[in-house]
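Two proteins were folded this term; both appear here.
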Amino acid sequence: MGMRAIVPLLSLCAALVAAPAPASLLDYVGECVPFARAASGIQIYGDAWTWWDKAAGKYRRGYVPREGAVIVFAQSARLPLGHVAVISRVIDERVVMVTHANWSRIDGVRGHVEQDVTLTDVSYQGDWSAVKVWYRGSAGLGSTSYPVNGFIYGGREAPELTNRNPDYVAALIDVYAR
C-alpha cells in the first residue's frame, strides 16, 4: 500500500481517537476497534464482539485467515467487549500473525499496537473457533483459549503491518518440535 492509501487511514484514525495522527499506524495508541478499522479499511463501528454480525451482508466473512482480514474474538468472560485484530501474515493453516492494539500492557500501559503477534488455532476441528495468543513477557503462548467468531475480509492486504521478520515464529516452531 502506497502513501496515498495510508494518508486517509491516518486521518480516520486521528478523528476516531481525537488525537494527532500518528506517524504510522504502528504508532497508534488506543482501542482495538479504531485501529482495526483504520488498518483494514473495514468500516464497522461498535464494540469488537458486534463486528461479526454487523459484517453480514456488507463484507465477506469466513473461517480461513487471510492477510488483511480482521479476526473477530467473541464476547467472553475474559473479553466482555470482544477483540478485533488484523491478520498481518499467514504462517500455515493453524498459525497466523496479527497486528492489534490494546491487548498487552507495555510499560504498564494498555493501548499500544503490537506487531506480528502469533495466534495459534487450538480448536478441535481446526476451524479457528478458538485461539491462543503469544505473550512477549512469557515468551510463549498464553494459557487462555479465546473463542473466535471468524474472519471479516475487507479486500485489502495489509503489508505495512508485518515486518516480515517476526520474532515469535522461530520460538513457536521450537515449541511444536518438542
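Next, the second protein.
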Amino acid sequence: MTRPWLPWARSAARPGPAPAGQPPAGPARPLLEVRDLTVHHGQLRALTEVSLTVHPGEVYAIIGANGAGKSTLLRTLAGLHAPTSGTVVFDGADVTGLRPDRRVAAGIAMVPEGRRLFGSLTVEENLLVGAAYARPGPWSPERVYELFGWMRERRGQRAALLSGGEQQAVAIGRALVANPRLLLLDELSLGLAPAVVRRIYGMLPDLLAAGLTVLLVEQDVSQALRVATHVHCLLEGRTTLRGAPGELTAAAIEDAYFGLARANGQGTRGGPR
C-alpha cells in the first residue's frame, strides 16, 4: 500500500477571550451526535460502535484507507443505510429512523462519492432535483451560479458532457439548493486533478460563512488536515484516532491510519469527540 503524505499538523486555532463585561460563551449544542453506531452489509460488519460529535460551523473530517467504513458512515447519516444499533441525533432530535427525504427536509444533504448526477438532465435540471425537498433558505440555483461562475452560461448543457470537476461542482450545488445545515461530502478529491481539488476545497470558507457545517470523508490525509477543525480516523470500521489537527502528530495519524497503534497494543487516542 502506498502511504499518503502526512505533514506535521498545523497549530490549532484557539478562540480569544470574551469581550470585557460579557461572560464567556458556553459550548454550543452539538449539531450532530453519533452514538455507538454499528452497521452491517449483510453478514459483513462495516462499522463498529462509532461515536462522534460535530458542532455548528465545524469542518469535521473522516479519514482512513479504502474499506475503512468512511462512505458507509456518511450514507448511514444520510439515511441510505439502516444501522444495526446505535443512534443518530441531529440538532437534538433522534433521526435514526428517518427516511433520506425526511433527513434532507430536516437539514442534512449529501454529495455522494462519484457525483451521481443524472447525465441525461441539464445542469439546471440536476439542481432542481436537489431542491425537491428543500428547506427554506438562501440557496437557489441562482445562488449556486454565483458560487460557480462558469455554471450560469452552461446551465442548459447535459451533465454527462461536463468534466469531472464540473460534475463535482454541480453535485455540490445540487446539495446546496436543499438549504442544508449539515453538508456531507464524500471523497471530493476522488479522480480529480490536484488543481481542480484545490478549487473545490477553496470554496469551503464561503460555505462556512453561509452558516453551513461540513462533515467530509477524505482519503487524502494532507488535504483533510489543511481544511478540518477536527479529524476522525477509521480503520476496518473502528475509531483509531480523533482530535483537532493541531493536537495530533504525523506519527500518531500514520499509526492510526495503518493500524500500527492497534498492533502495538495502544488504544484510541484523542478525546470523547
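The longest helix spans residues 164-176. The radius of gyration is 19 Å. These notes refer to the second protein only.
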